[in-house]
Amino acid sequence: MVSERALQVLRAIVEDYVDTREPVGSKAIVERHSFGVSAATIRNDMAMLEDEDLIAAPHTSSGRVPTDKGYRVFVDHLAELRPLTAAQRSGIASFLEAPGDLDDVLARTVRALTTLTGQVAIVQYPSFARATVSHVELVQLGAGRMLVIVVTDTGRVSQRIAATRVDFEEDEIALIRAEIGSLLVGRPVRDGLKRIAARLDDPGLAATDRVAATSEIVRVVAEELEEFRQDRMVMAGAANLARRENDFRGSLYPLLEAIEEQVTILRLMSEMVADEQGLAASIGRENEPFGLSEASVVISDYDATGSRARVGVLGPTRMDYPTNLASVRAVARYLTRLLEEDESGR
Amino acid sequence: MVSERALQVLRAIVEDYVDTREPVGSKAIVERHSFGVSAATIRNDMAMLEDEDLIAAPHTSSGRVPTDKGYRVFVDHLAELRPLTAAQRSGIASFLEAPGDLDDVLARTVRALTTLTGQVAIVQYPSFARATVSHVELVQLGAGRMLVIVVTDTGRVSQRIAATRVDFEEDEIALIRAEIGSLLVGRPVRDGLKRIAARLDDPGLAATDRVAATSEIVRVVAEELEEFRQDRMVMAGAANLARRENDFRGSLYPLLEAIEEQVTILRLMSEMVADEQGLAASIGRENEPFGLSEASVVISDYDATGSRARVGVLGPTRMDYPTNLASVRAVARYLTRLLEEDESGR
DNA sequence: ATTGGCACTCTATCCGTGCGAGTGCCAGAC
DNA sequence: GTCTGGCACTCGCACGGATAGAGTGCCAAT
Description:
Two copies of one chain form a homodimer. The first copy, chain A, is an alpha+beta fold.
């Protein structure tokens, strides 16, 4: 069992260590914080904390450093979100309020978050789960190419070129479009994929005799639906990892690779369990299954057109959790508001 | 003046240093290469090379290391491209030959190049300079949104949502499309921008009375044209910089930032002057104006639908130039062939 | 439960030393 | 003139020992 004061000592250790990057000793604590007790008392508390594996000593006679478990207790029980300054708030607001479509907004969001936190910022695209197809459009480009466009009600647009190798008449195009549309429009993306797959297996249905060309178009539509199903994200500030290089024992390579791959990070972010405020942190070794055991991720849920996604930052385990939690939450709230306005005020 | 043998000594130094990352001494040279002369003779040659500032000593009594100028002479006069192995060639071929549109092809290209070289790979999109607009399409999404699509003859597609706030009738849309089309289709992108700007200044021309909504659409088209004008690139393998961390004196931060910004690297790549083979290298301090004085860039031109662009790799100055030059050239050739096939064989 | 005191441990730093790699130069051979 | 062997010399670096300093752990007293 750890006493209340011991927890405050833990908080002091975490804060000072994040601040100075130096292991913190009992003397430094009584100097920088006003506990009203002597260093020896603090030492007793520290011994308890060490028994509980909340802090550890890099070597026998040095200050203590928080363990991953220590950080965990800190964010769960000790951290108060550090509210943003007025300047920061108005910064976010002015940065985000410019007009633009979903891509623009998310791109600006991720940049705002990285300047705010100095960490790698990540914004997940709203999930496909509840998205439905709202439009399918075919545009003939000539020379045997057809531009195939699929739009969802969440504002995601996918466009891709099908090499049909033949050109169609206008009315043929209208027929194909109508047929694909009837299969997809108004339906959830995931159902659409099934329906299209069935259509692919039965090319005889074609409303035109250009069977090969038509199924090429259908195949491309299927590809686009598949793309919608996959989670996407935008990321910014990867260079910040290099500024914090010393906080990583090993090379930056695995981290940079995970960032480039995206899929690992998307999985990690998706599997985190948010609290009632929509916030969550995943700390150090907790990320071991993802090969990111020296990093922490802080996320917040946001709402977009009925579907829900996440914004977050990635950085070294030794990060300023109160600030990052507050920043992530603030940005998520702005984003939610912005996307809701967008939805209604039109 | 440097003798012919001195140049061969330079080659040996560059090759060994790139290989081992150790400063190379006269004795090591006579051991690893068969010059048929003694170490003392090599030392005389090395003294000459040092006078010419082609090699330098990290400290008085250690082996020598190529200077940037030394690498330059190596690349210009001594390097023979190291031909790819059959396995590598067929690897590129199988990797690239899958079907897909321009985005797909370039994305695969950049990945092929990064696995081939182990460096950061960059592929410039074909330039807008000679591209012409081939299609303008409007798709009404409902709820006051209009999807605005612009396509060029080089296969680049841009799509963006205009918040018109009102919905149009079908025939209104057709009119607007026709009007914008008549301004742009078949004309170079850069001219289009001027024409659209003129149109923006004179909204009275609108073929419909929904003036505000119409000019919103036109504004979005202008944005898309502007986007075409800007050079674009795809990049892969940034994590490789972390593997070569030791080759950079300072932090990786400026490099990673330049990669994220893209614009610096695009300018650098554009300003390089290729030889008659379409190859070029920019070495170390030569990149000082771009803040990349510890890095080298190797590029090759490629042709795409009449316009020309570049593929390249970025890495530490101490890189394997023969291999990288050969890889970049091979990939550029495959890419040229692929895009030409694509153009004609349809 | 808290405190002051004290012995102890470990690290980081400095200094001196020796070693070895590698150079630079010279005098002689070809 | 070019090449070569030889040799003195220069440094960087690794090693060992000594020292200072930070910080702990424990204990006896309050």
